[in-house]
Amino acid sequence: MNFMRAWIYLIIASVFEVAWIYSVKFMQFKEFFKIRFTEIFTAKSMYTILPILGYVVFGVGNIILFSKAMKTLPAGIAYATWMSVALIFVKITDVVIFKQPLTFLHVVFILFILVGVVGLKLID
Q1: How many Cα atoms within 13 Å fall on the side-chain side of residue 102?
Q2: pTM exceeds 0.70 for this model
Q3: Which is it for the CA torsion 61, 114, 4, 72, positive or negative?
């Protein structure tokens, strides 16, 4: 597989990981089992069904893309990058969409994550 394509798969897998994480955040299993077949396409039901559907779709897509990337990239580099990019995207999503605070220390530790991943790549 093309080396550049493996990195693209890895970044997309990280984005899928973030979408998977937020689908878990919004899942409501108790409500899911209360939905009647005639109510499936109502707005209320969609708020319950879509996170569960996202969990499956993003979870499977994440693993497929990550496994494709690992066929070309070393496992340690692939895993470190995949998790690091996902963590950074989660923090960005928390700040931008969910209005969570972003402090100087958050930025410092995100930079530590980036330095660690780049360092792993440089010594490999």
Answers
A1: 14
A2: yes
A3: negative
CA 52/CA 49 separation, integer angstroms: 5
Task: Say which DSSP state 97 is in.
Answer: T
> Rounded to whole angstroms, what are the CA distances from 81 to 57, 71, 103?
22, 15, 23
**pLDDT tens per residue across span 2-57:** 989 999 999 999 999 999 999 999 988 777 777 776 777 787 778 788 999 999 99
Euclidean distance between CA atoms 28 and 102, whole angstroms: 28
77 contact partners, CB below 8 Å, separation of at least 6: 117, 120, 121, 124
- Return the number of other C-beta atoms located less than 10 Å from residue 81's C-beta: 21
Name the residue with tokens 């209005």.
Answer: 99
